[in-house]
Specification:
Blueprint (H helix, E strand, L loop, with lengths): L1 H10 L1 H4 L5 E2 L8 E8 L4 E8 L4 E5 L6 H10 L3 E6 L1 H117 L1
Parallel strand pairs: 4-5
Antiparallel strand pairs: 1-2, 2-3, 3-4
Length: 204
């Protein structure tokens, strides 16, 4: 972003300050220099952009035949030429830089979206983890209910068996009582027979 801003600000005086000999730059320098040099043969301009504070300057669209004139101007202004470039080449480079910046912005946007998606994915994974825990709890509860049901069924069967056994015991007791009653009646009968026999013996 800084590279694009610097170049765009350096090129800005070409359109808005062609008549000024000294221009205040929007980059912060109060001694920003601008010169335009005309070539009668090609009817083109060579532009000199310089900063009187750091003594650096650049030439845009220099003409080879006027190289001596251009360097003399740089010397007269007490500047240090750091760069000279054809405007078309410079524009191509600026275009390349802008394309690279656009690509960088797109990549950053993709990275931001990727981070956003990763956050969303992490949230979904956490939610799935919680869901798995809940499912596990439900499965444990179902297993527990199955075990309780099994125990209840076993108790029901044991109770039925116990009731059957109790019924069998009761029947056995009833049979025993009946047999005892029969024995009691038999003993009473024997006693009566014995009494009768004794009475008969006395009559004889």
């Amino acid at each position: 972003m800084k590279i694009k801003t610097v170049f765009s600000r350096l090129l800005q005086p070409l359109t808005i300050a062609t008549r000024n000999m000294t221009h205040t730059s929007s980059t912060g320098s109060k001694n920003f220099l601008f010169r335009q040099l005309f070539d009668n043969t090609s009817c083109t301009y060579t532009y000199l952009l310089g900063d009187a504070d750091n003594k650096e300057c650049i030439l845009i669209d220099p003409v080879v035949e006027h190289a001596k004139r251009d360097f003399q101007l740089v010397k007269d202004l007490n500047l240090n030429l750091i760069y000279a470039e054809d405007q078309e080449n410079l524009q191509d480079r600026l275009s390349t830089v802008e394309n690279a910046l656009d690509s960088l912005r797109q990549n950053l946007s993709i990275l931001e979206k990727q981070e956003y998606l990763e956050d969303k994915l992490a949230t979904v994974v956490n939610a799935l983890g919680g869901l798995k825990n809940n499912v596990t709890l439900l499965e444990d509860q179902e297993n527990l209910e199955d075990r309780v049901s099994t125990v209840e069924n076993a108790l029901d069967k044991d109770q039925e068996n116990l009731e059957d056994r109790v019924s069998t015991v009761e029947n056995a007791l009833d049979s025993l009582r009946y047999n005892l009653s029969v024995l009691d009646n038999q003993e009473n009968l024997e006693d009566r027979v014995s009494t009768v026999e004794i009475a008969l013996d006395s009559l004889r």
